[in-house]
């Protein structure tokens, strides 16, 4: 990681920290405070032909825990990983059919890359110990966090992926809610996403967790603008006012800290998923981070111990993959705000650092077919599978 303010120096610091011979790909998560027009080319110049992807954040997860105003990242060795990526431009015009074409293209490129690598190994026996073989796959999606297209994109891509697990995060801009960026091909772009298909011979598991349980306080969305994720009425009352009443804060000003502390959940497929509120508008309507529609029943959620929830998660991940050498994490910004409110962020930082987590604070998280909120999702990667 680097806290250098100059984008070229920050890129150099990151390169010096993570560069290794024969890299398969590089992930970068950076503050939107950087001069992105300078940072993108600087990274491309340093890493050369290596695939470099990433996004802007609402906070970074570094080797020492949570940071802001920084850049962090990780590189993956070609000995154990193979990766191909496709960028999606013009998210506003994205259609379901594009997802199947995208996944077909990625799969074809992945197969060609693996076949070419196997041929290289057969021609040079010295490569045998470094050669990746086709292992199991996972997919990573990074997407513009203000596109309001996450649900359509992630559900259609996951459908096309078949049995390949997917996780990802929506890019942030430090709670400005103005513009977010995706890094690909040496340039930061908005209204875009990038999908990465990763093959590895290492043990891994894709996961998610949230630290909420449902309560008996329920409310119905009676008027909404689904295209803009805006709810104007709840229980036939102005949405902001009724939400405040339901969470016991009637008459109180609604802030991001309140939304973080009192999220609402919806029941989908037998499970509850968080539908976090982004902001209250001047007309008392509520803008959500996730899909919303009239007739949906919202349930006020109640929190459990966030630190213990993470400790339990990492214990399960250890059982699944052994000691994780890396955990890529996408952590909702509202979780970060809650940690600040409860003054436990330093404790969570220690837990993340101890478990080798690198990632970022998001405007939403993707897990398989779902776009969710107030969730921590990612992939835990362990040692090589035994042959």
Automatic annotation (TrEMBL):
All copies of domain FIST, residue ranges: 22-238
PANTHER family recorded: BLR0328 PROTEIN (PTHR40252)
Name of the featured protein: FIST C-terminal domain-containing protein
InterPro entries xref list: FIST_C, FIST_domain_N
Residues annotated as domain FIST C-domain: 239-369
Residue ranges of coiled coil: none
Pfam family, one: FIST
